[in-house]
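Late entry, evening session. Most of the bench is empty. Finally got around to the prediction I had been postponing all week. Sequence below, unchanged from the version circulated by S.P.
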Amino acid sequence: MMTIKILFFGITTDLTKTSEISFQMPKNAKVKECKLALIGHYPSLKNINSYAIAVNESYADDDLVLQSNDVVAIIPPVSGG
């Protein structure tokens, strides 16, 4: 297992009731697996149609392999006018 840091922004902070957690993932887990694990831990995240993922301050796709101590940001859609 490895530990990564998850940062929540915007509405995801409201849905999870936190802005930051340490999260255990299997070694060599991908972003897609992290998303599924987070939904398992925070079912309310299913209510968001889409959100971006950044790993170590760079946007990441679902196939990126996570490393121990990575910082994963959950970035919800932003609206405005």
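Two things to note before I forget:
The CA atoms of residues 25 and 37 lie 8 Å apart.
The radius of gyration is 12 Å.
Will write this up properly tomorrow.
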